[in-house]
Amino acid sequence: MIPEIHIEDYNYGLEDSRIAKYPLPERDASKLLHYKNGEVSHTIFRNLPNLLPEGAMMVFNETKVVPARLHFRRESGAHIEIFCLEPIAPVEYNLAFAATTETTWKCVIGNAKKWKEDILRLYNPNDDAVIGAMDLRAELTGRDGQTGQVRFTWKDGSPFSRVLEVAGTVPIPPYLNRESEAIDVQRYQTLYARIRGSVAAPTAGLHFTDRVLEGIKAKGIDMEKVCLHVGAGTFLPVKSSLVSEHPMHREPFVVTRDLLVKLRDRKVPLIAVGTTSVRTLESLYYVGVSCIEEGEPRDVAQWAPYEREYTYSTQEAIQAIIDWLDKNGKREISAGTRIIIVPGFKFRIVDLLVTNFHQPESTLILLVSAFVNGNWRAIYNYALDNDFRFLSYGDSSLLERA
Predict the structure, then answer these.
(1) How high is the pLDDT of residue 235?
(2) Do 60 and 77 fall within a single domain?
(3) What is the mean pLDDT of residues 189-202?
(4) Are 91 and 134 within one domain?
(5) What is the CATH number of the domain that holds 297?
(6) How many CA within 13 A on the CB side of residue 13?
(7) Do the beta carbons of residue 352 and residue 401 sit within 8 Å?
């Protein structure tokens, strides 16, 4: 049964001055709130390893943010901003990034009303020779509400990943109310980012340094990776009062067979770094259910966890994915998820969560509330009372599920 939740019940007073507009000089110098057994305390993030259970499993999202914001200009002088969301042709990220002459993407288009049928050229106010040689152009091939299909073409034979690196800017969150700067190229990226595809960083990972990672390793913790590409929908506010009327965006994820085997057999607590890792891991159960009932993996629907009772064990669901991979000669599962995690959700995999502090009335606040059994407000009041910094470049928390 889909829960009836009013988003205004998940509001709190967040003044602009509390939003961290820039990262701290040291990644691991941020504050770390610790929530355990209903008690709240805090320390510094570099002390995180001391709070983690020895021999646990910790899962990171190794997606990499791409400089996906491009600026074009019409002959009339109108500026058009194009924000690449996900590839359409080729549909696979790696193939789209490897394309050397053209690729089509689903995009958010700024000033879209000013863009008619003409082909746009990249705005190059400084006459950069490399950008000029690329001669990047954009053609609008379709519209769909707030987004459009854009066909990019260029001339110098560079892979599209290189085109974005040269011509694009880092798509920092809109609530920072500033343009991206040189510092964002490095700091709006985790140290372990590897697989290109996100248009927003999995920000819980921004605090990790080599020092912290070594401390985690020293506690015998098994550090594993998943990949979920974060979409621009992560910034979309819940506009309807009833959360049941809010449409969740699809995000693609990949999990290896080796990790699935470890998840099936684990006897230790699992720590997820970031809400994206939670969404990936908890989606696996429902992918497994589709393997059991339909013979193949399906994308996870937004309300699948709430629409019925499930009698399969987590081990049975994960084993079903492994069996499907083996049958089809694959080493990893690729799927998509629209899962929304709200109070009443049954967590099947994640025991501890490292996460930042999220926007009021957001789906991420709902996830946190679900994780701490509704006690989110005490956690956020503590953070407000103790001068924590909020949102993407802000401070962090370690939340332990009862």
Answers:
(1) 64
(2) no
(3) 91
(4) yes
(5) 3.40.1780.10
(6) 4
(7) yes
